[in-house]
Design brief:
Blueprint: E1 5-12, H1 16-27, E2 32-36, H2 42-47, H3 49-66, H4 81-91, H5 98-106, E3 110-113, E4 115-120, E5 123-127, E6 133-144, E7 148-150, H6 166-171, E8 178-182, H7 186-197, E9 201-205, H8 216-228, E10 232-234, E11 241-245, E12 248-252, E13 258-261, E14 263-266, E15 270-272, E16 304-306, H9 317-336, H10 353-356, E17 359-362, E18 367-372, H11 375-380, E19 385-391, H12 395-400, E20 407-413, E21 418-426, H13 433-441, H14 446-449, H15 462-470
Parallel strand pairs: 1-2, 1-6, 2-3, 6-16, 8-9, 8-14, 9-10
Antiparallel strand pairs: 4-5, 5-6, 7-15, 11-12, 12-13, 17-18, 18-21, 19-20, 20-21
Helix pairs in contact: 1-9, 3-4, 3-7
Keywords: FAD, Flavoprotein, NAD, Nucleotide-binding
Organism: Arthrobacter pityocampae
InterPro entries: Class-I_Pyr_Nuc-Dis_Oxidored, FAD/NAD-bd_sf, FAD/NAD-binding_dom, FAD/NAD-linked_Rdtase_dimer_sf, Pyr_nuc-diS_OxRdtase, Pyr_nucl-diS_OxRdtase_dimer
Length: about 475
């Protein structure tokens, strides 16, 4: 066997996160090989963020126009499903990754296509489609950026059926007449609304409520909106078994009730893609991989990192890319001898915001935009927390749309008098989120935040109302 090729850094997985780690280390003078077995760009570009948002956006625009008298009268038709699907396809470049490949190679990163496995400490072997193999040995780091994979519940009959995962739902070429969605998380709820607005008869089956990670007032706004526009949302409903009858999925949801649909989307969460990577060959259990704030896997002895969905901390593109920048910088700093075992909180080498200020948006209509902790999470983390919440009712919201309904909440650390969490729910609230992220990351004292005057008449005036209600 030939000697392994020598390289500074090996990154496994060329999703948004892997691309960013590789890009960062190369910018800092190290050499890097990036390995991808599927499309360069990963889940977000082709089967997740981009296509799902492209499927939702036309419906949101239409409903926004219908929400304003004068514009409403100009809307005389419904969505054109074929046009919506075609526009979605333009955002996925028709599942062609040549432009992403061009970007990767233009940066000086070496791109290798094939399946990568760890075959020893710092050593990765790539199996190419033509049966050949290439082995690299990393001087400084091997980075797992292998993403996540759907978690499919052990429901009777399900494993044998050709159900949709989010991949099929985001890449479908036709709108089914009916769709059952198993799981009331963010992926299920977004795709449920997108398909309902495209004309499918949609039933969501949630074992508890929907969007359980968000404050109930916020998720209830979405629940009411979904039901108001004709989706069936079954909450507190277990799915006992699934069969296929006359070409349709039949879900047994207890008490003799069934849900029948042409397609079934299973969106019941995801777990890190760490199986089949050869982690066992270096004495690691793929199921219990952990990472520190620099991205390093402590049990591996210093050379292995895990970032993005594979790292198992947050499953969001923007946060994964943040981890990628931090880890890329940490690897380069360690290579220079500028960084030891651990990194200080909020330094360039620690992804501290993963613990304190993760922004997340549910792109339904209405939207939920949240950053930091809910009241319950804050108290669980030992924060002496209070909450202030109200309906969004300011001049900006009234102007935005007739009958605007929204809700906002801030969670305050009473000992430090700073924000630790903010949630907005309502039409198009996502663009207000970054102000909250800045306030939390910057630990802006409330009596200074009071001087951040929102422009009139914007929906952001809700900030003023929250601070007034808090007592400022
Ligand atoms: C339907 C849906 C909608 C979403 N919407 C949003 C959103 O709006 N905003 C948001 O922030 N997040 C969203 N997410 C989450 C987001 O998609 C993920 O957090 C993000 O894609 C993770 O990026 P990653 O690079 O870690 O993993 P991935 O994008 O999954 O990339 C991992 C790559 O590694 C490759 N790979 C794996 N193993 C190997 C191997 N052994 N050898 C070679 N290559 C390998 C895979 O082929 C893949 O290309 C959504 C997720 C879903 C499912
Ligand atoms: N807008 C966005 O940023 C966005 C959109 C989609 C997905 N994502 C990311 O992708 C990840 C995956 O999304 P997701 O919605 O699949 O996961 P999720 O963890 O958000 O939701 C999964 C849901 O499935 C439910 N569930 C689990 N097992 C079940 C069972 N046996 N029967 C019924 N329900 C069951 C859970 O209670 C939960 O409500 C999320 O963690 C999220 O970070 C983000």
């Amino acid at each position: 066997m030939s000697e392994p090729l020598s390289i500074d850094v090996i990154v496994i997985g060329a999703g948004a996160v892997g691309e960013n780690v590789a890009g960062r280390v190369v910018e800092r003078g190290l050499s890097a090989v990036l390995v991808e077995s599927d499309l360069v760009g990963g889940e977000c570009s082709y089967w997740a963020c981009m296509p799902s948002k492209a499927l939702l956006r036309p419906g949101t625009v239409l409903s926004a126009a219908r929400g304003v008298a004068g514009a409403r009268e100009a809307v005389t038709g419904a969505l054109d499903p074929q046009q919506v699907l075609e526009r979605r396809t333009s955002f996925t470049s028709d599942w062609d990754d040549s432009s992403q490949e061009e970007w990767v190679t233009s940066t000086g990163i070496i791109l290798e296509r094939g399946w990568a496995t760890l075959t020893g400490e710092r050593e990765v072997t790539i199996s190419h489609d033509d049966g050949s193999g290439t082995t690299y040995r990393a001087t400084h780091a091997v980075v797992l950026a292998t993403g996540s994979t759907p978690t499919v519940p052990p429901i009777d009959g399900l494993a044998d059926l050709d159900y949709w995962t989010t991949r099929e739902a985001t890449s479908a070429k036709e709108v089914p007449a009916s769709l059952a969605v198993l799981g009331g998380g963010v992926a299920g709820v977004e795709l449920a609304q997108a398909y309902a607005r495209l004309g499918a008869e949609v039933t969501v089956i949630a074992r508890s409520g929907i969007l359980g990670n968000y404050p109930k007032e916020a998720s209830d706004l979405v629940l009411d909106a979904l039901r108001g526009e004709g989706l069936t949302v079954l909450t507190d409903t277990a799915t006992n078994a699934v069969t296929r009858e006359d070409g349709r999925f039949v879900l047994d949801v207890g008490d003799g009730r069934t849900v029948t649909a042409e397609k079934l989307l299973v969106s019941t969460g995801r777990h890190p893609n760490t199986a089949g990577l050869g982690l066992e060959s270096v004495g690691l259990d793929p199921k219990t991989l952990t990472r520190d704030d620099t991205g390093r896997v402590p049990d591996a002895g210093g050379w292995l990192y895990a970032v993005g969905d594979a790292g198992g901390v947050v499953q969001l593109t923007h946060q994964g890319k943040y981890e990628a920048r931090v880890t890329g910088d940490a690897i380069a700093a360690r290579a220079r001898g500028d960084l030891g075992e651990s990194a200080a909180d909020w330094s360039a080498y620690a992804s501290t915001a993963d613990r304190a200020a993760v922004p997340q948006v549910v792109f339904t209509d209405p939207e939920i935009a949240m950053v930091g902790r809910t009241l319950e999470q804050a108290r669980k983390d030992g924060v002496n927390a209070s909450e202030t919440s109200l309906e969004i009712a300011v001049a900006g919201s009234a102007l935005h749309s007739d009958g605007y309904t929204g809700w906002a909440q801030m969670v305050v650390d009473e000992d430090r008098k700073v924000l630790v969490g903010v949630t907005f729910a309502g039409p198009e609230v996502s663009e207000m989120l970054h102000a909250a992220t800045i306030a939390i990351v910057g630990e802006v004292p409330l009596d200074r935040l009071w001087h951040a005057v929102p422009a009139y008449p914007t929906v952001s005036e809700v900030w003023l109302r929250l601070l007034e209600k808090y007592g400022l």
